[in-house]
Amino acid sequence: MNHRELSKEIIRLTGGQENITQAWHCITRLRFNVREENKVQLEQIRALDGVLGAQFQSDQFQVVIGNKVAAVYEELEEQLKQGGVVRAEAEPKRSRGINAVLDTISGIFTPILPAIVGTGMLKGILALLVTLGAIQETSGEYQILASVANAAFYFLPFLLAVSSARKFKVNEYIALTLAGTLLYPTILNAYLENHLEPIRFLSLPVSIVNYTQSVIPIILGVWLLSYVHRWVDRFIPGPVKVIFTSMIVLIITVPILLIAIGPLGNYIGIYLEIGTSWLFAHSGPLTGIVLGGLMPVIVMTGMHYAFFPGTLQNLSKLGYDVLLLPLNLVANMSQAGAVMAVFLKTKNKSMKSIALSSGISAFLGITEPAIYGVTLKLKKPFYASIIGGAAGGGFITAVGLKCFGFAVPGLLSLPLYIGPDGGMANFWYALIGIGISFVVSFTVTLLLKWDEPDAVQAAAPTASEQGDATKSEQAAAATTSLASTASTKSSDQDMSPSVTVHSIEEKKGEIYSPLTGELVLLKELPDPTFAEEMTGKGIAIYPKEGRVTAPFDGTVTMIAKSKHAIMLTSSSGIDILIHVGLNTVSLKGKFFVTKVTAGQEVKKGDLLLEFDMQSIQAAGVNLITPIIVANTPDYLDVVPVQVKGVIPMNELLLLTVR
Predict the structure, then answer these.
(1) What residues are labeled active site?
(2) Measured between alpha carbons, how far is 609 from 258 in angstroms, rounded to an integer?
(3) pTM
């Protein structure tokens, strides 16, 4: 399915727009905060074409898409904007404890990654060009490109102000003003000129601190801002809110930020830096072995976001990182080694194709396709990748590998391991580390045995297989229903041939909504024939417009003489009855206009019937329209895709299970 269809399906199976309070994405995953987890249909989402995996982690719902996540998110964001995702009257479920911390860090840092990664890569390329003698540090070209490469880090508080404001749901422009006070020349120039005597504000000291490239002070400041803004806003009269609210909020928040929160955040950052140095000084290779091996698990659970503040702090204060980025680099190459071994060893053509494409992505630093599409599915290659990551991690921590910029940890980030002075020793350590990880993982994977994916796939039917079955059941129901509402029925319809399924592909079939309207469960209908599913399983729609379209590609098998009911058979053998209104047979065809004839072939979305809603309602007839699978007994079950809300025409409505 295309990106738009996939995003629609994900929204629907996540419980609809009303169940989503926030949505964003990282490099490979869609991430959601949802109101009620039990509304998320996890297995059906995992079975979608285009989805590599789905899980709940740290009170987030995550859908792994892979390299095309940005394109899918673009469609998803547009649909969520149209539906108005965040509603003030409904409080989302709040995360607690460590989950709340991880959720907050993820929501703040993920949106700014494009700027950090892009400028970080440019910094690495500049270092490579200087080393190769292709550009001089004194040249104008270098100075301009260096300003671009350093801008995102130098003005990091501004980037974090915007993303923090979105996460804490406070005005972004007030948050930017807060960041501006941290970087205002009064404080910054005093620091640069070594005038460190505190400035007095109401007799309280404002410390002279360099907040460029800082991380924690602005996040804590915007967090405080969100509470102060809500408190002040309650007391300011509506007509003057725009004038006084922001002024009072800033007058309260800025002094607290400069006097207390800013210096506190600065000290937290310093101690994060000290803690990292202590960890490597006292445990060395052991830390690399443990974290290098467990990095895929850390990434899968979202725990890697806990390292982000420390990583950025180290890059800003020390100029390099020795933890997250180097360890991720060797772990990613270990995944690449495992999937490339699977590519060479597997005899399954589909798995071979997935392994090759996900292996290329892993070389570029994007490992979710490899993890969810190959190694985790086959299990033993995943264990091999852990062994390879541990081996590489032990080596790079033993030699003290440093990364001098922030980028996606893949082969393209290798220029970031060239020393700022042009030294190449660190770069060679990086090459040896990724070589160890790749070779160990590749070799162990080749030596291990695993079940070929054919056996795995045969173990359980996919969601699409289940979907086809549902349609068939409803088609059976439709046949019976039509017999009860139409005065005559051709005998050859009763003798419709059974469908023999020879493969999984033949089981596939989907029924799309022939109407736009409000969904109603059959059991809620006042007509017991439909309510008790005597005619088969399905669902009903209360229409919002007087048009009926084909729910699939197939053939019109019958039209009732009173024109209110139409039966169709899909190319895969699903019989469907569309019965417009209850007891509409009494109208004897008035207010109905058919657009097709019996025996005519139709495509999904073709117009079948038009009806005059106002006239039918004036005649006292209920317009609730049952959509029934007439050959329900041919299937194990018939499953509505959703049971509440308004469904658009041509949206997926029913699935059948053989």
Answers:
(1) 26, 579
(2) 69
(3) 0.51
